[in-house]
Amino acid sequence: MDSMAAWEVARPGPIAGRPLRAVRRAVPAPADDELLVRVRACAVCRTDLHVAEGDLPPHRSPVIPGHEVVGEVTALGAAVTGWAAGERVGIAWLRHTDGMCAYCRRGQENLCPASRYTGWDADGGYAEYAVVPAEYAYRLPAGYDDAHLAPLLCAGIIGYRALRRAELPPGGRLGIYGFGASAHLTAQVALAQGATVYVMTRSAEARELGLRLGAAWAGGADERPPEPLDAAILFAPVGDLVPPALSALDRGGTLAVAGIHLSDIPVLNYQRHLFQERQLRSVAANTRDDGREFLALAAAHPLAVTVTPYPLDRADEALADLAADRVEGAAVLIP
């Protein structure tokens, strides 16, 4: 195949203005250290929406979004070892770090100043083919089909890191604000670890999903849970939810903000929101070790992954539905 179908963002703007456009592109050739991957499924992430709308400033223009890719290796660069044509492979958000900076050396490659990302710095998976550096590709667990694996590669991994950043104690009480693709996976991980989970979200359908998955209670986005929380994770990119989430924490509790973009946070009151050693933490991407640990966990403890499939030629519709909270679980593009 000489060319492929793809979607690109050339001029970021409001999703109503359809910043995604369908194009034909040449099939990329893998560099010496890369794999060429035929895309079988690509989940749609809220970060893709931030790229399309310009909340994240363009790093490459035009760019093909998409960083939750499950595919098949079809060609290998000359320097690649350890992979073979026909193997199933995962492509995720992080695709390059320098390996030499202070952050990389101390195990925090997610903070590397030279880091680059799939679907932002390089073309991603809203296409029939994509390339990935072999050192940043993931081996995938059995027991999941392609569509149900795709959301694990960002929604799952970033939720796992956010849960770690929230420092939920064993058997603790976890609040989850926003309940989309990442949250519905993180909730299951927390429940498997013995937590009590409370869901706060504006979507009635998402509240119902949370209860089906085992949440003890589900309410509106700014409702107060029925008991103080030991930890909380904010998945909704809504800064207005930070004060009520902090107020819901028990003494010593931690709120982790999982998104790469957040609207402005209102003024905080020290006594009401932060005193008694409450903490507010951000989450910046993930390390490859986070990804490997989470995928091993998903292999050992099968997760119920809720997906809404879309054909690749409806990628713009899928992104619009995500923006309007019309997607249950994760939207997944199927070429």
Automatic annotation (TrEMBL):
Write down the InterPro entries for this protein, in alphabetical order.
Answer: ADH-like_C, ADH-like_N, ADH_Zn_CS, ADH_Zn_typ-2, ER, GroES-like_sf, NAD(P)-bd_dom_sf
Q: Which UniProt keywords apply?
A: Metal-binding, NAD, Oxidoreductase, Zinc
Q: Does the keyword Repressor apply?
A: no
Q: Which SUPFAM superfamilies does the entry mention? A: GroES-like, NAD(P)-binding Rossmann-fold domains
Q: Which CDD domains match?
A: CAD2
Q: Does the keyword Disulfide bond apply?
A: no
Broad class of enzyme this protein falls into:
oxidoreductase
Q: Which residues form a coiled coil?
A: none
N-terminal signal peptide:
none
- The UniProt record lists the EC number as 1.1.1.1
Reading the lineage from the top rank, the first entry is Bacteria
Q: Where is the Enoyl reductase (ER) domain?
A: 17-333
Record's GO cellular component, any one?
A: cytoplasm
Name the catalysed reactions.
a secondary alcohol + NAD(+) = a ketone + NADH + H(+); a primary alcohol + NAD(+) = an aldehyde + NADH + H(+)
A GO molecular-function descriptor: alcohol dehydrogenase (NAD+) activity
One Pfam family named in its UniProt record: ADH_zinc_N
Required cofactor names: Zn(2+)
NCBIfam families to which the protein is assigned, alphabetical:
adh_fam_2 (TIGR02822)
Q: Which family does it belong to?
A: Belongs to the zinc-containing alcohol dehydrogenase family.
Please state what the protein is called.
Probable alcohol dehydrogenase AdhA
The organism is Catellatospora bangladeshensis
Instruction: Tell me the lineage of the source organism.
Output: Bacteria, Bacillati, Actinomycetota, Actinomycetes, Micromonosporales
